[in-house]
């Protein structure tokens, strides 16, 4: 029997546990070999030394349009859930709508961390795998206990954006979705 998972508490808990990556036999983050036709957003880049830096120009809720970007995973809530309670963080999440209570759940979250670099990703049980997403430094951290996965992408030396995938039945599947979403979102991020 599947359990229902509320979006914001899961995102908040995952934010506190912060970041793990899917273990693989080879180091690095797998390239899904899919091309993204995502348009790049144009944003004014802040200096990393300014308060907020590059991360201040990013609205995580504007980086994903579920009806266009997440259709292969099902239908998602029409509006993102935003949770901006932690200092230096801005987040957004989208929850898959389940037509049958036995369908697998899925929550996709984006968390902009203004004061945490990719190097600060924590091992939450599945190790941390360093790699790149479209040339940006990245780190993937799976959480086998809760079947979620975080993939952190560098914004600049002092900040990152996390792609968090949770509420799935399998941590490896969660990491695969996180990778696919990361390759979709990265071209929309401002360059440092």
From TrEMBL:
It comes from Saccharomonospora azurea NA-128. Residues 26-59, 73-98 are annotated as: Disordered. Keywords: Signal. Residues 34-44 have a biased composition (Low complexity). This is DUF3558 domain-containing protein. It holds the Pfam family DUF3558. Residues 1-25 form the signal peptide.
